[in-house]
Write a structure and sequence with these properties.
Blueprint (H helix, E strand, L loop, with lengths): L2 H12 L6 H6 L3 H10 L4 E7 L2 E8 L3 E10 L2 E11 L12 E12 L3 E9 L4 E10 L5 E10 L6 E3 L13 H4 L9
Antiparallel strand pairs: 1-2, 2-3, 3-4, 4-5, 5-6, 5-9, 6-7, 7-8
Length: 186
């Protein structure tokens, strides 16, 4: 999406065409908006690239940070992993300053015959809920749903909050963030 399209989305979707005078000052370019939005708990997207290819899209929302991990699959951009962090001081985060909490993981795998979605939710009481949906396309369409719960140590789900509007790359190290018991990840 172009910078103009991005700014238009911010204005129409997130600000509902009712920007404040201060918002208007920062809607001149996407980078200025991102800096302003980070400092003022407003919504913004940042796409990160490596070698000219997009690798992750971060959506900073006032209550959460979500990350889409991207790769190319059969010539099309594909989200293979989605992670959500809670960042607000509310019942979930229990007033933990300077920390975010890994609340949700979704892992997608797809080939010509099937699509598998693993969705992991972490609850405050230390319960990890895993939902697995397998959609088989061939020889005929079939869907299988499985749900499991287990007790886990959530202490390693806490990470430091990003310090500025581009400070997200440490969250891309999902192989060290996600514990082996969560999912079998590549």
């Amino acid at each position: 999406m172009s910078e103009e399209g991005t700014l238009d989305n911010i204005l129409t979707i997130w600000l509902e065409n009712k920007p404040t005078a201060e918002d208007k000052k920062h809607l001149k370019n996407a980078e200025d908006w991102a800096k302003y939005a980070f400092d003022n708990d407003k919504n913004y997207y940042v796409t990160f690239f490596k070698g000219g290819e997009p690798i992750a899209c971060v959506f900073n929302y006032f209550e959460t940070i979500s990350i889409d991990f991207l790769t190319y699959h059969n010539g099309e951009l594909f989200i293979y992993l989605f992670m959500v962090y809670d960042k607000g001081k509310d019942s979930h985060n229990k007033d933990v300053d300077g920390k975010i909490f890994l609340r949700q993981i979704e892992l997608y795998d797809e080939d010509a015959d099937k699509r598998i979605t693993n969705k992991v939710l972490f609850r405050d009481n230390g319960i990890m809920n895993v939902e697995t949906i397998t959609k088989t396309k061939r020889p005929e369409f079939r869907m299988n749903y499985e749900e499991k719960e287990t007790q886990v140590n959530l202490s390693h789900n806490w990470l430091r909050k990003p310090q500025n509007y581009t400070d997200y790359e440490y969250l891309f190290d999902y192989q060290n963030i996600l514990k082996p018991e969560y999912l079998d990840l590549p």
